[in-house]
Automatic annotation (TrEMBL):
PROSITE patterns: ABC_TRANSPORTER_1, ABC_TRANSPORTER_2. This is ABC transporter ATP-binding protein. Keywords: ATP-binding, Nucleotide-binding, Transport. It comes from the Bacteria. SMART domains: AAA (SM00382). Transmembrane segments: none annotated. It comes from Parasedimentitalea psychrophila. GO terms for molecular function: ATP binding; ATP hydrolysis activity. The keyword NAD does not apply. Pfam families: ABC_tran.
Length: 297
């Protein structure tokens, strides 16, 4: 089975300013890709080119073999923008039913609204909805017709913590059904646990694209070990293993990934002097900071 989305050497200019530079990206069916980057890195521009809203100046984009903006690409692609906008005089049921008719997707409108937590508001006018409720209505629109590609731009914007968990549960369901999902987000903690791959744009250049584990190996950032010792042995322990004192009763040392097990064995050999050991590997925030500041080469 081929990739759902294939982006090859895409470049985009705004006047003399280059917005995207030779971007390559693929997403397979059922894969969840997080697209990260500072404001102005090119994330929104890339999404607009995938949707066919703006042309590329070099390179190509294929959605299940179709060209962005074509009838076939529109049928297979769903989009949830960061700030959704609907007609305020329509009810949630009316708006989603309209989308269903326009797309020819049909479907259980009331059931979809219930799935996104709007069952109590489906006959209320959208003008009375909160931002989070409008975001949920936008997600219900994404679910229409089981799209092959879903583009989600800051999908948790305006959602409370419970609603965010519900949204990612729905994203997981879409992926399980074979939908390829691209999530552009600044919520690093969320996407760290709920995506399969991370791609990072820096000034229009893709500087990273891999699984979290592979990016960690490539960055070779340190793992931090915090050792809590018996209060009367902290001085002796500090002299033996070095590190940084934390609150007078703990030490923190850093090591590379390939040194981690050796350090743990060395510390464990100290026996009853050790009360606890906690380990903090590099997080997505650390990797994002590392790759987004790297030279584009």
């Amino acid at each position: 089975m081929g990739n759902t989305l294939t982006i090859k050497s895409v470049s985009k200019f705004r006047g003399k300013i280059q917005i995207l530079q030779d971007v390559d990206l693929v997403i397979a069916p059922g894969e969840r890709l997080a697209l990260l980057g500072h404001n102005g890195a090119g994330k929104s521009t890339l999404i607009k080119t995938i949707l066919g809203l703006t042309p590329v100046h070099q390179g190509s984009i294929q959605i299940c073999g179709a060209t962005p903006g074509s009838a076939e690409a529109r049928r297979t692609t769903a989009f949830l923008p960061e700030s959704v906008s609907f007609h305020p005089a329509l009810t949630g049921r009316e708006q989603l039913a309209l989308f269903a008719r326009l797309s020819g997707a049909g479907g259980d409108v009331a059931g979809l609204l219930d799935r996104v937590g709007l069952s109590d508001a489906l006959d209320r006018r959208i003008g009375t909805y909160s931002k989070g409720m409008r975001q949920r209505l936008g997600l219900a629109q994404v679910l229409l017709g089981r799209p092959k590609l879903a583009l989600l731009d800051e999908p948790t914007s305006g959602l409370d913590p419970i609603s965010r968990q519900d949204l990612y549960a729905i994203i997981d369901e879409l992926a399980a059904q074979g939908t390829a999902i691209l999530i552009a987000s600044h919520a690093l903690t969320e996407v760290e646990a709920r995506t399969d791959r991370i791609a990072i744009l820096r000034k229009g250049v893709k500087v990273a694209d891999n699984t979290l584990a592979a990016l960690s190996r490539a960055a070779d950032l340190p793992t931090h070990l915090r050792i809590t010792a018996q209060s009367d042995q902290i001085e002796q322990l500090a002299a033996q293993i070095g590190g940084r004192r934390i609150n007078g009763a703990a030490l923190e040392i850093s090591c590379s990934a390939d040194q981690k097990m050796d350090e743990l064995r060395r510390i464990a050999a100290m026996g009853d002097a050790i009360v606890d050991i906690s380990m903090t590997p590099p997080r997505l925030e650390d990797l994002y900071r590392h790759f987004s500041k790297e030279d584009s080469r």
